[in-house]
Model the fold of this input.
Amino acid sequence: MSTARPDIVFIVLDTQRRDRLSCYGYPLPTSPHLDAFAATSTRFHHAVSAAQWTVPSHATMFTGLYPSAHGVLQSYSRLPDHIPTLAERLSAGGYYTAGFCNNPLVGVINNGLRRGFYSFLNYSGLLTSRPNQAGIPSGLVGKYRQFFKRSLANLLNRVQDSFARSELMLALSFTPLMVPLWQTALSFKGNTRKSLDDAAQLLIDRKGLDSDQPIFSFLNLMGTHMPYHPPRQYVERFAPNVLRDKAAQHYLKQFNGDIYGWLAPLAEVLDERQKATLDGMYDAEVAYQDELLGAFFRRLAESGRLDNTLVIVCSDHGEHLGEKQFIGHSITLYNELIQVPLIIHDPSGNLPKGTVREEVVSTRRLFHTVLTSAGLANEVEETLTLAQAPGSEGDRRVFAEAIPPQNVVNLLYKRQPELVLARACDQPRRAVWIGNHKLIETGGDSGTDRFANRLELYDFQQDPTEALNLSDILPENVEVLQECLQQFVGEYAGKGVEYGDRAGATEQHRAPGFDDPEVQRRLRDLGYLED
Done:
C-alpha cells in the first residue's frame, strides 16, 4: 500500500435518485458499472443530503456545515469569506485542486463555491472553458486571442449570474423563445463524456505537476437532470414506449420544454402513460451516464492510479417524477429528493471494500472524510469522518433543510398562488432522522403559523416510499423529535453568517449537543438512545 497522500476524486451525480440504481435494489439494470464499483467499495445505504437542491447541498459538502450555518440558501447567496471551502483547505495543504463542472449553478454563478480551485473548467453555459479551447497562445495573435476569450468569458459570466439574481431574467429564460436556445446552444447539461475524459487525463498524465503532488478532482455530472435526451439505444432498453407511442412523444416534448413545469407541484396526478414516460427516460439517462462512468473507472484502474485514489460517488439531491404530485427538486424533503447514493472507494482500508453501512449519515460529513484522508483534519473534524465505525459519535441525529428558492416561489405565486398555499411551497421544511424514524416539519419560523403544525412522521426503514404518516399514531415520538428539530434551529439557524473567524466556523462542525436532560431521557424511553 502506498504511503503517499492519496489523490481524491469527488464525483457528484447531479439529480441522481438513489432508488434508481440497481446496487440500491432497483429491479432494472440501470447501473452495472456503478454496481461493480460499489462491490469493491463501501456503500452507504441511508445517506441523506443536507438540502433538496444544488446550491445549498454543494455548499454543505464543500464546508461541512448545515445550510442554515453556511447561509448559502438562495441562488443569489454567496458563501461568506470566513468559511473555508474544501478546495481551499486542500490547496493550502499542498493538493492540486481541479474542477470539471457541468452545472452552471456551481460553475458559473458567483456564489463562492469555486474558491480554492487552481483550475475550474465549465462544460455548460454561454462560453465553456474546456482545455485548450482557444489553442496554446503563440505570438501576438495567440495572446490577443486568449485576452479576448478571457474578457468575453467574464462578460458572459456576469450575464449568466444575473439570471440567478433577477426574477425578471429568470422569467425570461422560461419563455418559448429562450428555452430551446439555452438547452441546446448553451449546453445546459454540459458534456459528461468530455468532463470525465479531461479529469482522467489530469489524474493519469499529471502534466505540469510534481511527481509527488496529490490531486483533488471535483466533478459535477448532469446526465440525469431534465431535459431528457438519452441516446436512442438507451431509450430502446428503458423507454421503448416512447419510440412507438405518439402521445408519449408529444408529452415528452412538452415536458422537456416546460421549464416552469419542472418547478411547480402538479395540480393533478400523472396518468400511467405520463409516469411511464418520465420513469423510462430518466432510467435511460441513468444507464447512459453509468456507461460513461464505467469507462472513467476503467481508465483509472488500468493506469494503476485507482490504487491510491480516494473516490467518492454521491448525489447532491434526487428528483421527483410525479410522486406525491411533485416534479423536480425545489420544495420537499421526501426520500425521492433527500435520500441519495453514496459510494466510497478508500485505498487506505479505513472504509473496507465490499461493505454496506446501514446507519443514517449526512453528506455534510464528506467534508470531514476528505480532509481526514488527506491528513488535514483537525480533532473536531476527525470525529465526523465517515470512516468511523457505525454507532460511534459522529452525527447521532441527522438533519436536512429545504429553504424554498425565493425566485421560484415568486414565479409560482404569479402563476398559481392557490397552489403555493395549498402545497406550502413558500414554507421552510426541516427533517430529523433518529432511530428508524424521520420527522418532517413544515413551516414554524417564517412569521406565520399557517403551517406551524404540519408534521409528518415516517418509519423510513419499513416505509421507504413514505406512504403512511405515523404522526397521529405515535404522538409522543413526534413531540420529542420536534423538540430535537427546535433545538437544531436554535443551535444552527442563521449562525453561519454571524461567525467572523475560523475558530467559530470550526465549532459549527460539531454535531448538535442536545444536552437537555429531559430530551435525553425521553429519547431513551422511546428507544432512540442507548444507555
In short: Residues 7 and 309 are 5 Å apart (CA to CA). The longest helix spans residues 272-303. The first strand starts at residue 7 and ends at 13.
